[in-house]
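Q: Okay, next protein. This is Fe-S cluster assembly protein SufD from Fodinicola feengrottensis. I've checked the sequence twice, so it should be correct. Can you predict the 3D structure?
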Amino acid sequence: MTTTTADARSQPGAGAPPATRSAALTSYDVADFSVPTMRDEDWRFTPLSRLAGLHDGSFVASGTPVKRSVAELPSGVRIENVGRDDKRIGTALVPFDRISAQAYTSFTEAFVLSVDKDIQVETPVVVDVGGGDLDGASFAHTVVDIGAGSEVTVVLDHTGPAVLADNVEVLVGDNAKLILVSVQDFDSGSVHLQHQRLKLGRDARITHISVSLGGDVVRQFTTVDYTGRGGDAQALGIYFADGGQHLEHRQLVDHSVPDCRSNVVYRGALQGKDAHTVWIGDVLIRPEATGTDTYEINRNLVLTEGARADSVPNLEIQTGEVVGAGHASATGRFDDEQLFYLMSRGITAENARRLVVRGFFAELIGRIPVEELRDRITATVEARLAEAGA
């Protein structure tokens, strides 16, 4: 199969790390990628020994396929299972690491959700994703194809047990608007490794909301690409890691077109021994991407001893003609002044801490346009705080 680079330039051998994100190797062939190690920059935070062999080919294939179902399908929205020869597959995504390539070569049928052109879908489309198990690895491929001029909310709700590696391609047509909510709420012991690639047309807008709550190891890589002027990407994230959980989120916002915008806001809380969260935010502004306006921020709230949050924002700017480009990161414990203020007004320490955590997540949870999902996330956060005696 063909090996390429993100900018179609010559690429050194697969084992050599790229000098910049713009020179990263992409390929459909698993053999083109070396087995990740903790010495690799992209994998140094990931607990490779807990990936069930998905990274090195030692996995045991599962006999239980991943299933997707939609309870209510609005007019103008279609779902189908297609073979890998479908022309939409590969439109947005070419694997850039070994696990993504493994997922691409190992799935049997892809799930495609498509929306007609020039329609406004009032009802959120909720796709329930599950059906795997903990005894073997599953692989999947999903395409979300939004027609030009349309507006819709789509929820990918991952639940149940799973050892899953999958790719998700998201195509947002010219002048279309998509709210995409991706929920990782797997059972204990689950492993989920996912690459989501979002491709935006001219004047297209996407609000991508990632919610990670369940599972043993969750590693989600989200890439944003622009194909026309006026693209706008809002990438929001909510995560809460409990004792022993590893929740890792990586983004690459690739500005290759003039006059596009991006805003990345991720917030995480963590508690318990060996709770670990990782956020890596990469923004690439290529020479031709004049007029870019971008900002990214990650905030982490460490609730107990024994928890660790790693946060690394990166900007690679190849032109000086930008509207704005910035990043920020903050990790800390409760604000003692906030707690003192609340307790001085008769609120107990326990309830004061809960109010602080609620307020920490409230803005982002409020951006989710599905009431049942907002309530579920809030209830999960409340339950975890109660278990920890917060």
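A: Here is a summary of the prediction. Residues 3-333 form one domain. The longest helix spans residues 349-365.
Q: Noted. On to the next one.
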